[in-house]
Design goal:
The chain is mostly beta strands. Helix content is 5%, strand content 43%. Strand 10 and strand 11 form a beta hairpin. The two termini are 20 Å apart.
Length: 262
C-alpha cells in the first residue's frame, strides 16, 4: 500500500463548523519526553492472558484482561479492562481503567505518565457510503463519521463527509481533486482532513481510498464559515509523502482506509 500524500495549501484552510462548542486545548510542558510504541497486532483468543517476546534482545511482556470488559456500539471496550506492557520489570505502558489489577497481576513497578492516544488506523468497507465511530483527540467525544462518494455521474463526482449526521465538507469536481486537504472544527478543535480517492476513480473496482483526520492544537490560521465549505475553492498542491512531512502543532491522527466491496 502506497504512502499517504500530504497536500498543503496556504489558501486551503477553512473552518467548516462555526457553531461547534469551544474546548480549550491544553498545552503540555515544554520539557516533556514522548515515547511512541509501535507493535504488530496479534489475535487474542483468550479474554485474559499474557504473551512474551523479544525486541532488540530485550524481553517484552504483554498482559491483558478483557473478562469484565464493557463494550459500547464499537469494537473497543470503554471500561473494565487493561492491557499492560512490561519491560525489565517496569510498567512501560498501561491502557484501561483496571490499573490496580494490572500492577497486581504483572508485579511490575515504576511510576510513569498516563498513556496518551495519538494515532489510530481503521479499515472499513462499503459501496457508496462508509460509516464508523471516531474520536479526534485523546479522551475525546465519540462521533458518528460518515463518508459518501457519489461517482455515479462521470461529469461531476463529489465527496461528502458528515459528522454526527451534520455535513461538514464537500469536494466537487473530484476527478480533478482526488487528493487534497481541508480544515474543519470538531469539539472546538481544528481538524485537518486529508483524502486520496484516486483508486476509487481510476483504479480497480475494488480499490481503496485513504483518509486522515489530524487534530491540531493551533487555530491561528482558521476562520469561521457560515455555510457548508466547498473545497473546490481551495488551492492545494501535493508536495511530499505524509511519512516525511514535518507539521507543527499536531495532536492526534486518525487513518481510515475505505474499501469498495462492489
Amino acid at each position: 500500500m502506497r504512502d499517504f500524500p500530504s497536500c498543503f495549501g496556504e489558501n486551503g484552510v477553512q473552518v467548516a463548523d462555526a457553531s461547534s462548542s469551544g474546548v480549550a486545548a491544553r498545552k503540555g510542558p515544554h520539557n516533556s519526553v514522548t515515547c511512541i510504541y509501535r507493535c504488530e497486532a496479534f489475535f487474542v483468543l483468550e479474554k485474559e492472558g499474557s504473551k512474551c517476546f523479544e525486541v532488540n534482545a530485550r524481553k517484552i511482556q504483554v498482559f491483558w484482561d478483557l473478562s469484565s470488559a464493557k463494550f459500547g456500539s464499537g469494537p473497543e471496550p470503554f471500561e473494565g479492562y487493561y492491557v499492560a506492557v512490561v519491560c525489565k520489570g517496569e510498567m512501560v505502558l498501561l491502557i484501561g481503567d483496571l490499573r490496580k489489577e494490572a500492577f497486581k497481576k504483572t508485579g511490575a513497578v515504576g511510576a510513569f505518565s498516563n498513556a496518551m492516544f495519538i494515532s489510530k488506523r481503521e479499515h472499513i468497507s462499503g459501496k457508496r457510503v462508509y460509516g464508523t465511530k471516531a474520536q479526534f483527540c485523546d479522551n475525546g467525544q465519540i462521533h458518528d463519521l460518515r463518508i459518501e462518494c457519489d461517482s455515479s455521474t462521470s461529469d461531476e463526482p463529489r465527496l461528502l463527509i458528515h459528522i454526527d449526521a451534520k455535513p461538514v465538507m464537500q469536494v466537487k469536481h473530484l476527478q480533478w481533486k482526488f487528493r487534497g486537504n481541508y480544515s474543519i472544527l470538531v469539539d472546538g478543535l481544528p481538524v485537518e482532513v486529508y483524502w486520496d480517492v484516486h483508486n476509487w476513480l481510476f483504479g480497480s473496482s475494488l480499490g481503496n481510498a485513504v483518509f486522515m483526520f489530524q487534530t491540531s492544537l493551533s487555530a491561528d490560521k482558521l476562520w469561521s464559515s457560515p455555510t457548508l465549505p466547498d473545497s473546490s475553492e481551495c488551492s492545494w498542491t501535493c508536495c511530499e509523502n505524509f511519512s516525511d512531512s514535518k507539521v507543527p502543532g499536531l495532536g492526534f491522527s486518525f487513518f481510515l482506509y475505505a474499501w469498495k466491496n462492489e
